[in-house]
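In the design runs reported in the main text, the only information available to the sequence generator was the tokenized backbone. The following block is the verbatim input for one such run; it is reproduced so that readers can re-run the procedure and compare outputs position by position.
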């Protein structure tokens, strides 16, 4: 399996997951106050929404790569 097919399958999988879940969230550590040796850090939860057009576009791009990427003329 060549690298183009792997990228195509990864794009299709990412597009399907984006359509199913609609987004993802992650936790980010930030330093709120640093006063000498004392440091106060805060964990912030960030949410990223994946637009529907991005998921569909990833599926289409992966499908095109899968179909057209393997052809050598």
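Verbatim output:
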């Amino acid at each position: 399996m060549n690298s183009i097919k792997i990228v195509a399958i990864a794009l299709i999988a990412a597009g399907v997951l984006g359509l199913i879940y609609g987004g993802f969230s992650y936790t980010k550590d930030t330093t709120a106050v640093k006063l000498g040796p004392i440091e106060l850090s805060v964990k912030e939860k960030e949410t990223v929404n994946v637009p529907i057009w991005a998921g569909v576009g990833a599926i289409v791009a992966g499908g095109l790569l899968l179909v057209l990427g393997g052809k050598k003329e």
